[in-house]
Each structure stands twice: as C-alpha cells, then as structure tokens.
From TrEMBL, chains A, B:
InterPro entries: ArsR-like_HTH, HTH_ArsR_DNA-bd_dom, WH-like_DNA-bd_sf, WH_DNA-bd_sf. This is DNA-binding transcriptional regulator, ArsR family. It comes from the Bacteria. Keywords: DNA-binding. Residues 9-84 form the HTH arsR-type domain. Pfam families: HTH_20. GO terms for molecular function: DNA binding; DNA-binding transcription factor activity. The keyword DNA-binding applies. PANTHER family: TRANSCRIPTIONAL REGULATORY PROTEIN (PTHR38600:SF1). CDD domains: HTH_ARSR. The keyword DNA damage does not apply.
Amino acid sequence: MSNESDNDLIFKALAHRRRREILDMLKDAPRTTGMLCEAFTDMDRCTVMLHLKVLEDADLVIAKKEGRERWNHLNSLPIKQVHDRWISAYAGHALSILDQLKKDLED
Amino acid sequence: MSNESDNDLIFKALAHRRRREILDMLKDAPRTTGMLCEAFTDMDRCTVMLHLKVLEDADLVIAKKEGRERWNHLNSLPIKQVHDRWISAYAGHALSILDQLKKDLED
C-alpha cells in the first residue's frame, strides 16, 4: 500500500459485502475459482470472477495458476497496513481508553 | 461492528482519501471541528462537516461537545475489528508466508 490510489482500490474492494464474504472464505484456505462459484450458488460465474478481479486489483487476493486451475489466496498485508496506519504500537492501551470514552458517551 | 451494514458504513467512510486524511490528523490528537477546518484550507466548513458526519456514522469518529466546541476523537475500534476479521492470532506467521508467496509470484 504505497499510496492513496492503492488505498482507494482497497476500500472500494472491501466496500462490497460479497467481496468481504469471499475474503472470509479465503481466510480459511485458498480456493480455486470453481470452488468459490460452488460456494456462492446465488452468483453466476461471471459475477464471482468480477469480484475476484476487484479484489486482485486491490492486492487483497493473489491468484496462482496450477495447471488449468486458478487458486485464489487471501493477501492480508494491505489489511495489516490499514491497521498500522491508525493503530499505533500502543494500540492496546489507546483502544482501552477509546473504548471507555465510547461507553461514557453512550451512557 | 456488529453486522455487515456497519461494515458498509465503515468502508464507505474509508473509501474517500480526505476522510482518511482527517483520521490521520485525529490519530495524533483529538481536534475541534474548527481546528480541522483550519488544517484543510482547501475545503469549506460544510464539506469538512459532511466528511465528519460520514466518519461519525461509521463510528470511526466520536464527537464530544465541550461548551461551544465539538471535539472529534478517532475511534480505532472498528479498524481493529476489520484487522481481526481477516488476520488471525497467528498473523505474524501467516503474513510471513503470504509475503513470501507474494514475492514468489512477483518474481
């Protein structure tokens, strides 16, 4: 995630819940495009492939061809970088304070 | 971040680079709306307030009134939850493998 254009792609990709569901599935294990199509029966193959393209453009999915199959891997590095941008090394401490502030404001 | 509708709001909010810049500024310290308007001289007050509203709807900014001033605080809890959704406790190890895979694919 070298610049803001990359970030635009990342958040555009994450903004669609079906793409988040695809990432959820890839978190468990890499899947072929065929496996993903079977898992999401309510989407046709073209739609799944379009979602994968958006995820790949954002570098959230890395595809690796093996023979005739295309294995899709989750790349969580951009997500880690999003985290590191706004959550410092003192995250645990800061988050506790913010969590308390949130509760105070909600009371 | 209890459900996917909350996530829609979070990624919509993060999708705009000016809003990411506002969060960058709030990471350093809470700011009043006036301070943010002074920092972003190329945006008028209404635009800054609209961006803050989107961030607040996504729970990424928590506003606290003190007298006539409105202090905006970064709430990084949703960002931590995004991280935790796709990066497991074994993150360090997994990220190393993925990082290597990425390098292999790029070579």
